Amino acid sequence: MSTCVIRRLYNSEFKGRLHNEMDEKVELRIYKKYAHLLLQPNEGNDLGLYVAVDIPTNDPRFDKARLLTEEIRKKYNDFFFLYAEIKRKYSKKELEAATLLHLKIKTVFEPTGEEYGTLYDETVACEICGANRKQVSPLTLKKGTIPKKDIARTIGGEVVVSEKFANVVKQRNLNGLQLNPINVDKYYQLTANTEIELSPNTIVGINPFDLSTSSEGEIYKCPKGDTIGLNLLSEPYVLDSQSIGENDFLVSKQNIGVKRGLLRPEPIYFCSQSFREVIEEEKLSGFEFEITNIEYRLPY
Ligand SMILES: [Zn+2]
């Protein structure tokens, strides 16, 4: 599958797609010696070793950048770019119209619970990708290391929330969240009670220009289906489920990422529109939202 699928999905009349105003671009840092192959002279932000530029994913240069990445790797065994990340911006109207949102936890910290005595049963984890180990003790974190946000996660994927967050969840009767005390006062571990399935339309890969499923001995797409890729590149696509209407917080059944040192494949989190509204109204910090596409089954 080629990366231009990302664009094709957005441009098509894809079933379940809820919005069409989204501004999507790739934030790209191109090595300066190759920048002239894609950019006009003086285009972008010259930062010495590389040039930073934003390219909309519906710009023909998005596809050209993918071709250049392949070509430069084949010809010179070199990298065209240093960094590439997809960014999306939504209008207020688009965000408000979504049934389900991808809840992104932007703040990541160390050390992990694993390094501070949190116990895991690794024997139940997938032997290929390392996903779905079982936490068998309360989360224990190093005191003084939790960022001053209402939500944050460790590099090992452990999610912590503030007391303010926990109080809001109770007061507003939000469903589907499980909060457990941890060893640090006024913080809780957050987990989700309900899983939903990512659909195969969810695009994952190493980066927007390389959708490889393995690299240098690491497997990013587990044959058992529990881990689907290294990074999420498109908005999430999920299969419709009754639990979407019944819960304010859900988690993907499939994981994204890799087992590497303390890193583990992690699920992605979703929230209802009413949960997003509560987060905005209460000014809870540490959240970002993207729209999730629900794939409805066609009636027979
Ligand atoms: Zn696996």
Which SSEs are present, and which pair or pack?
Layout: H1 4-11, E1 23-31, H2 32-35, E2 45-46, E3 50-56, H3 60-76, E4 81-89, H4 92-97, E5 100-105, E6 108-109, E7 120-121, E8 134-135, E9 151-154, E10 159-162, H5 163-171, E11 177-181, E12 187-192, E13 195-196, E14 204-205, E15 214-215, E16 218-219, E17 227-229, E18 231-232, E19 237-239, H6 242-246, E20 249-252, E21 255-256, E22 269-272, H7 273-281, E23 287-291, E24 293-295
Parallel strand pairs: 6-9, 13-20, 17-21, 19-24
Antiparallel strand pairs: 1-3, 1-4, 2-3, 5-22, 5-23, 7-8, 9-10, 10-12, 11-12, 14-18, 15-16, 20-22
The protein binds zinc ion.
Word description of this protein:
This protein is α+β, with helices and mostly antiparallel strands and 300 residues long. It has two domains: 23-89; 96-295, no CATH class. Helices cover 19% and strands 31% of the residues. The protein contains seven helices and 24 strands. The chain has helices spanning 4-11, 32-35, 60-76, 92-97, 163-171, 242-246, 273-281; strands spanning 23-31, 45-46, 50-56, 81-89, 100-105, 108-109, 120-121, 134-135, 151-154, 159-162, 177-181, 187-192, 195-196, 204-205, 214-215, 218-219, 227-229, 231-232, 237-239, 249-252, 255-256, 269-272, 287-291, 293-295. β9 (151-154) and β10 (159-162) form a beta hairpin. Residues 1-19 have low confidence and may be disordered. Residues 126, 128-129, 131, 222, 224, 226-227 line the site of zinc ion (ZN).
